[in-house]
Every structure is written in C-alpha cells, then in structure tokens.
Amino acid sequence: MLDDRERCFLESLARCRPLLRSCALGDTPPPHGYQLHAALSKTGLLFLSSISSNISTALFHMYAALGPPASALRAFEEIPVAARFTPDWTALISCHIRHALPSRAILFFRSMLRAGASPDEVTLIALLSASARLSDNFSGDAAHLLFFKLGLPFTAASCNAAMDMYAKSSRMDEAWKLFKEMKNPTIVSWTIILTGALRWEGLRSGQEVFDRMPQRNDVAWTVMISACIEAGRPRDALGLLGEMLFDGVHMVWLNHVSMCSLLSACSQAGDLTVGRWLHTHFIKTTSFANNYKDHLLKVNTALIDMYGKCGRVDNALTLFERMPERNIVSWNAMLSGLSMQGMGLRVLHLFTRMVTEGEEQPDDITMVNVLSACSRSGLLEEGRSMFQELSLIYKITPKIEHFACMVDLLGRAGCLEEAESLVRAMPMQPNEVVLGSLLASCALHGKLELGRKLMQELVQLYPDNTEYHVLLSNMFAASQRHTEADDLRMVVKNRGIQKTPGMSFIEINGIVHWFTAGDKTHPQTIEIYTMLGEIVRRMNLAGYTIDAASQNSRVADNYLENGDEREEREQALLVHSERLALALGLISTKPGVTLRIVKNLRICSDCHSAMKLCASIFEREIIIRDRNRFHCFKAGLCSCSDFW
DNA sequence: GTAGGGTTAG
Questions:
Q1: Which of A11, A316, A349, A482 has its CA 20 to 30 A from that of A275?
Q2: Is the pLDDT at A307 greater than 60, yes or no?
Q3: Of all nucleotides in the shown strands, which has a C1' nearest the CA of A129?
Q4: Which nucleotide is nearest, taking the CA of residue A297 and each C1'?
C-alpha cells in the first residue's frame, strides 16, 4: 500500500514530463517548471536511476527552451552520456543561437560530432542559422554540403536557411541561385531574398522584389519599413504603414516588431500624430501572450524614444516611470530624450539614480548620452569628470563617440587648445564628426588659423563634402577677410554644393504642412506671405536687424543657391522653411497655442534669433526640433541658451 | 529548425 506522500510523488512523476514539456512550449509560466525541478531534486526523485534519464532529458528541454543557456548547459550535463540523442544536441545548439551565442552553438555542433551523434535536418538548419549570424562561410558551406553527404531531405525550410546564410554572408548570387531553383518558394523564402536585396542592392531593387511577392505578411512589410528607416526615409516608412493597413484583402496586423519599427520612423520624422495613434493602437490590440512582458518592454522603450524625439519628453517620463520593467535601452532612450531638450542637469540626475539604484549598469551608449547632454547644456566641469569616470569607475573603454562629445564640450566652451590636444592624443584617427565639431567651435570663437588647418584635414579625408568650405568661408567673411571668403566660395561654386534641401513641417488639426525655403505651393501662400511681412514689421519695431553675416550656421537651408548678393541672401533668410511654418501656425491657431515645428536640418542662427523674438512678440511658445535637438522658444529666450 | 525591432557623437 502506498501512503499519501508516495502517491503524491508518483502522481507528480506522471505529470512532470508533460508539465515540463508545456513549460518548454511556453503554455505554462516558467516558475512552474523551475518549482517542479526544485521539488524533484528535493524529494530525490530526480536521482532514481530507473527514471532519471527520461526526467533529466525533459528538464533539459525545458531549460533549453527557456534559457538562460548556462542553465540549459547545466541541465544537459545531467543527461547520461549514453542518453544524449540528436534532438538533445540540437536543442542545446538552438538555445545558444536564440540567446545570440552563435559561435558557442557551432562549438557544440563540433562536440556533437565528436560524441558520435549524427546531425539531422533540424540540426543543420540550426547550424546554417548560426553561420548566417556570424557570416561564417566555412561552417555555412559545410552545413549546406552535409545535407547531400548525409542524404537528408533538402526541404523548403532547409533551402530557406541556406539562402539566409548566403544572403547574410554577402553571397547574394548563391542565394538567388537557390531561390530560382525552388519549385514552391514560401513567404519566408521571399522575405529572405527581399532582405538580402535591400541590403546589397538597395531600396529600389528591394522594392522590385517586394512588388513581385505573391503575398505579404507582417514580416515582409516590416522588412520594407525598416529598410526605409535605415535609408533615412521615415516618411516612406510611414507611407508603407498606410498601404499595409489596406493591403487589399489581406489584413496585416501590427505586431510588436512592426510597432517598434514604425515608432522609430515617427521618431525620425518627428510625427507625433502617427506615434500617438500607434500608442493607442498598441494598447487596444496588445495580446497577453506568454512573452508579452518582453514585447511590452521593447514597445515601451520605442514609445519613450518616440515621445522624446517628438517633443513630448513629459509623456516619455510618465511612461518611463510607469514601466513595469526597464532595461539599459529604456534608460538610454530616456536619457537621450532629456538630452535633446537640453535638460542636462536632469540627465545627470537620472544617471545618478540609475547608478545608485543599481537597476542597470551604464554602457557605452549611456555615457555618450550623458556626455552629449553636458555638451548641449554647457556643463563643462561635470562633463570633464564624467569623462574621467567613464574608464575609472564604469570600466568602459572610451570610443570615438565619447571623444567626439568631449571635443565638442571643450570646443564650445572656448577651450580650443585643450580640445585640439585631445584630438591629437586620441588613440584612434579623428573622423569627420570630431574634426567637424572642432571646426564649428573655431567658427563660434573666431579661431581662423586652427579652422583653416582643420578644413584642410577634412577636405583631404572627405573631398566630396563642400560644407566645410562654406563654414570656413563664413568665418572669413565674419572677420572681414573677404578675399579669402570669396576664394572659398568659388571652390564651392565650381564643385557644386551637395546639400539636402531644408524642409520644415508644422501640424495643424492633424494635417501636416510641409515647406521648403521660399515655398509658394501652399494653398494659403498669400496669407502666409502677408503674415511674414507682418512678422518682419513687428520685429523691426522691436529693434531687430537682420544679420546675414552671422549666418555662419553649420548648415542653413537655401544657402548660396540664392546668389551672392547681400540683399538676396537677406531675402533668403526671411523665407527659410521654418519661418513659413511659423507664419502658417500663427494664422491658423488661436492665440497662446504652442507651435511645434520640425526641421530636417539645423536651424540657422538668424532664424534662431528671429524665433526668440517672435515668441515674445506673439506671446507664443514655439518648439522647433532641428536635426540635433529641441529649441523651446519662450518669452524671448530659447531652452538651448543660444548654445547649440 | 528557416524571414523582421529598440538606445549613441558635430
């Protein structure tokens, strides 16, 4: 007769294999599996030789499915050597791939062969996947060959895995060859080819593949959307959202990956309206799948980034504080949002909180955010000590990004000799960002000779970029050295200027209005230009004089194309795209309403002064996001303290 | 077992 205790053991024994299996499949929350493991070892059942190999295998598969890989490996080692079969090895390999450890996965594949186990189709697909992630031609080719050597079926899934390996190893010709030989390519096959085509052959070629796809699912759409974002075309990405939601008869759902991509497009484009729509949509449609916590973390982080970059750092903060779980990326996104608003002290405060609470260890990106916040807010001493702490306390090897921030911080503060020494002492070659930043500081502080030297270095490194000639020419002009200034302008004129046209938009009642410099295509053009005249009149009354020589901004839209005449240049300044957006904003909204403008380039210093004045004349808060940061103009002042 | 995300420097 069994007593209750024994009966209970036997019952749990009968149940534990299916229970472990359901943990592995994600049907049961992981704690149940872990508790079962604990119970099995505590009661000694795990060590009964008659059942242990079965149970230990089931336990291992649970850990292999859930991770972390170290636990999976520990559990694997509990399986008797003679009882380690092909699926067990495969699960061990796949577990390492899923946790971004492809090289360890390949090592385990070798151990598997040494142990005498024979790979099957699934093992080889895993090996192909590991090789793809590493762009490892050697193991990739070996995996492909083994299908034929071992006489294993080369199914659509195998072929897909091989194509993906070739595509990720920059061997698109091989990938295409396999694709063209396929009788029935699946949507996965198409998506692999689409991804590969986009990465080597470009947006156009990818678009051709996309157009030829017999069907498209959420993954295919997300691939296209992400490609637009990578190419710096966030509006195209958002255009695809519209197409995706009305893709004929197919209803495509936004999953957490597409959510993150689209939110990133909103961040880039500064599109708060679509960003908010996505937020609402996410709240309404999110399903509580077993991995929803992970999805929630990622989408929340993307939302923090979106709100930060769309000028609603307040919403970003609320979301950040309410998040059930945060990781280093969430902290970094929050720090970056505050930094873009010039809230340097709040960045330092949040950083201190992060370190003291010990929730996450700062990484290199955290430190870039902190240093650039110091630079943007002119926190010289704070930045200096953070740069020291970077390696001393946080054990991070400074990268070129960190040096770039320091050079910028020192240069803006007028410590140009120190900035230059740092550039020369850096363990790596200075790049365009570092030299360009120093050159801009020379322009700010009128250091002509150092500026000239830097420009020569920049021209040698980046001969196609004429932006530096413009910058230096402006420096000479500002110092009344017109001959040198004109010489440089001639170089630019002869070589042609390659520059993105300046564009701004303002959103009014959910409609986005775009402007280029001197734009006259808007239906309300007459009213807009009338308002511009009124703005100039009121600014003149307030004692404003245009300062065309001071437009030595790093990039100003419509610059130089408008001829060399002073009046023409002045005229061009008056119709910069952000001013047109401002004029429309002023005539289309009620008094006192905050105006939010997004510009694709840096705001020029003249428009910057004009915006400060307009904010006080018209008693409006004007928020402009330019390429680098936010400017909040209020009562004659800007949040950047004229330091940008 | 095969396809797609997030945070960073002028």
A1: A349
A2: yes
A3: B2
A4: B6
* C-alpha to C-alpha distance for A394 and A379, rounded to whole angstroms: 20
Return left, alpha or beta for A450; rule: phi > 0 is left, psi -120 to 50 is alpha, else beta: alpha
User: Alpha-carbon distance A146 to A126, whole Å?
Assistant: 13
Q: What element of type H or E holds A504?
A: strand A503-508
Confidence grade of residue A55 (pLDDT, cut at 50, 70, 90)? confident
pLDDT cut 70: percent of chain A above it: 86
Element (H, E) at A408: helix A400-412
Q: What's the rounded Cα separation, in Å, for the pair A228 and A91?
A: 36
Q: How far is the CA of A103 from the C1' of B4 (A)?
A: 22
CA of A218 to C1' of B1 (A): 21
In whole angstroms, give the CA distance from residue A152 to residue A124.
Answer: 10
Spatial distance from the CA of A608 to the C1' of B5 (Å): 36
Q: Which two tokens stand for residue A143?
A: 């995996």
Residue lying closest to nucleotide B8, CA to C1' = A365
Spatial distance from the CA of A172 to the C1' of B3 (Å):
15
Q: Give the pair of three-digit tokens for residue A615.
A: 């904010």
- Closest residue (CA) to C1' of nucleotide B10 is A437
Residue for token pair 């090592």: A107
The sheet with strand A622-625 has its strands ordered as: A511-516, A503-508, A595-599, A622-625, A630-634, A637-638
Question: Which residue's CA shows the smallest distance to C1' of B6?
Answer: A302
**Pairing outcome for strands A622-625 and A595-599:** parallel
Whole-number distance in Å between A431 CA and B2 C1': 40
User: Tell me, in Å, how far CA of A508 is from C1' of B6?
Assistant: 29
Structure tokens at A539: 């600014």
CB atoms closer than 10 angstroms to residue A568: 13
Q: Which nucleotides of B are covered by protein (CB under 7 A)?
A: 1-10
Helix (H, G, I), strand (E, B) or coil at A556: coil
d(CA A585, CA A593): 9
Q: What is the mean pLDDT of residues A362-366?
A: 95
User: Is residue A116 very low, low, confident or very high in pLDDT (cuts 50, 70, 90)?
Assistant: very high
- CA atoms of A404 and A419, how far apart (whole Å): 10
Strands (E), A10-104: none
Q: How far apart are the first and last CA of chain A?
A: 84
- Looking across all nucleic acid strands, the nucleotide with the smallest C1' to CA distance from residue A371 is B9
Interatomic CA–C1' length for residue A431 and nucleotide B4, angstroms: 32
Q: Give the nearest nucleotide to A161, CA to C1'.
A: B2
Q: Which nt is closest to the CA of A227, judged by C1'?
A: B4
